[in-house]
Amino acid sequence: MAKAEIRMMDTIDIEEVMDVEKRCFSTPWTRDAFWQELTKNQFAYYFVAVHKHKVIGYCGLWVVVENANITNIAVDPEFRQQGVGENLLQSAMEMSRTLGAERLSLEVRVSNHPAQAMYKKYGFEPGGIRKRYYTDNQEDALVMWVKL
């Protein structure tokens, strides 16, 4: 089991986050997208999971008044099923509560049953479908919500 420290992401983490991003997604975000999120978006909060001085996962969160949304969550495939994703999710939930959010939502691929199971473990419930949400293969997204 990988012991990972969860901390706030900084711009110096972008290169390592990009490595995780490329290993996890067929259409990864750009460096500029992460830079904008960290330096320009007043609603954005990003966390990284660090194991042996290396970023092995990250989670993005937007909090706007009483609504929070997880923008993305990714764990290096080598470190999955070891609690890293859960630790990142817990950090996002704690930050959402701290900032006064009443609800937290996210989108997950309809085919991603392991992630859906993790979200359900933390009280998330299905709330709807976003048709053809993912641009790489036009897969639908399941919207999930939890009341904080």
From TrEMBL:
It catalyses: N-terminal L-alanyl-[ribosomal protein bS18] + acetyl-CoA = N-terminal N(alpha)-acetyl-L-alanyl-[ribosomal protein bS18] + CoA + H(+). It comes from the Bacteria. Its EC number is 2.3.1.266. It is found in: Cytoplasm. PROSITE patterns: GNAT. Belongs to the acetyltransferase family. RimI subfamily. The keyword Ribosomal protein applies. It comes from Alkalicoccus luteus. Pfam families: Acetyltransf_1. Residues 4-148 form the N-acetyltransferase domain. GO terms for molecular function: protein-N-terminal-alanine acetyltransferase activity. Coiled coil: none annotated. This is [Ribosomal protein bS18]-alanine N-acetyltransferase. It is an enzyme of class 2 (transferase). GO terms for cellular component: cytoplasm; ribosome. Acetylates the N-terminal alanine of ribosomal protein bS18. Keywords: Cytoplasm, Ribonucleoprotein, Ribosomal protein. NCBIfam families: rimI.
